[in-house]
Amino acid sequence: MNWQEFLAGQAPEYIGTVLAVVSVICIARQKMLGWPLGILWAAISAWLAFTRWHLFSDGVLYISYIPLQLYSWWTWWRKGTMQQLFRPTWLKPRQQMALATGVILAVVLWGQGVKFLAHDLHWIAPPALLWRDATTTVLNYFAQVLQAQKRMENWVGWLLVNVLGIHIYAIQGSHVYVAQYGFFLLLGLYGAWAWYRAMKEDAV
C-alpha cells in the first residue's frame, strides 16, 4: 500500500480516533499527556474535515485546536507548579448565565459569518449542516477554554458536542467518527464523575 492509498482509506480516521480516545482518558484523569496527543488528533481531523467531509467550521475548529491545546498544556503545567492546589471548580451562577448567553450569541455570529462567506461572497464551498456544524464548533471553543481552567462546566459542553457529533458524522457516513463521538460521550460522563470526585476529595 502506498501513501496515497493509505491517506485515501480509513486509516487516518482510525489513527485519529485512537489518539482522541487516549487523549480524553488522560484529560479525565488530569494527566498532561492528553494535550500533545490532542494536538496530533486535531491535525489529522482538520485534514479530514477539509478534504473529505467538507465541514468548513469543523476544519477551522480542528486547526485552531492546535494553539488551544498548547495553551491548555501550558496552563495545566503553570498552575500545577503553584503551591495552591489546581483543582476542578464550578463557575458562579452569574458566570454560568453569562457563559450560556455568550455561547448562544457566538453560535449565531459564527453561523451567519460562514453563511456570508459561502453564499454571499462565494469564498468557500457551501458548508454541510451549517447550524449544527457551527454549534459544535462554538461549543468546542468554550469547552476547551473551560477545560484548560478546570471548570466543571466544560463537561456539559462536551456532552452537547458529542451528541451533535454523533448525529453530524452519521449523516456524513463516517461510521468511525460516529463510534469515536459515541465513545467520547461515555468518556465525558466518566470525566465529569472523575473531576467531581476529585473536587470533593480536595475540599475535605
Commentary on this structure:
With 204 residues, this protein is mainly α. It has one domain (3-203). It has eight helices and no strands. The chain starts with a helix and ends with a helix. The relative contact order is 0.13.
The 3D shape can be described as globular
The number of distinct helices, counting runs of at least 4 residues, comes to 8
Percent helix range: over 70%
Overall number of domains: 1
CA gyration radius, whole angstroms: 17 Å
- State the major sheet: none
How many runs of DSSP E, i.e. beta strands?
0
What distinguishing features does this structure have?
single chain, 204 residues, 0% strand, mainly alpha, 8 helices
Q: What is the topological layout?
A:
Blueprint: H1 3-8, H2 11-28, H3 34-53, H4 56-80, H5 93-120, H6 130-148, H7 153-172, H8 175-203
Helix pairs in contact: 2-3, 2-8, 3-4, 4-6, 5-6, 6-7, 7-8
